[in-house]
Amino acid sequence: MIQIRQSKPFPFGYTPITTIDEVQHNTNMDFGILKFKKDGIEKNKEQKERAYLLIQGEVIFQWSNQSQVAKRENCFDEDPWVLHVPQNVEVTITGIKEGSEIAVIKTTNSKEFSAKLYTPQEVRSEQRGKGTMKETSTRTVRTVFDYSNAPYSNLVLGEVIDHPGKWSSYPPHYHPQPEIYFYKFYPDNGYGFAELGEEVLKVKNNDTVKILNNATHPQTTAPGYAMYYLWVIRHIDGNPYITPTFVPEHLWVTQPDAKIWPDK
What we know:
The chain is mostly beta strands and about 260 residues long. The chain has a single domain, classed as Jelly Rolls (Sandwich). Helices cover about 0% and strands about 45% of the residues. A hairpin with a 2-residue loop joins strand 5 and strand 6. About 40% of the residues are buried.
């Protein structure tokens, strides 16, 4: 399945959404949501690179004889905490606030690197599209790590806040590396649309979409609703993700002096 719908709130514990060994539409990543009861504890140690992104709530991260309390009121207004570890490093996470949610991403990676906890202050947050397209594609893009600051990783990880009634991931672009989008809406009964090449999907709160085979993937959200999506890209061996390829016929709209109707 390209789209995985989660029509009910996530149960406590770990809910797998994609797996690394899927026969069809394989992203080469494990992806799921870890939801905590108060004082609930989750431990993990395996031969995979792993990233733990706090979507909302309060938890204690423990790894490599280090410990840190991480708190995030919500994913729309605050930048994330992310614990990123190589294979065979044990991670323990304790829920402080009931209902805390963490996105878990795993993939194969034999490289050895130092585990790192990214604080919200270290996340690169920017307003993209600002000053162009009559502000119809102004959005907040947060990059936690990519090839520029974590070349040892097989992943690229970040978030987008799509402003109500506006577009993101625009102009249309594509790349051969597989990608996952995971969505939240505010209010949570909101919805939006995800382009996948010539197909368009209606996306709702807690949905997941897999982006494969060079499909273009702009997004838009309904007026009145903010859309959050976590995005994670899996590098292809020998072909890491650096930048996407934009569809050239639509690039003109990004020019500051572009004449767009009705001012054309």
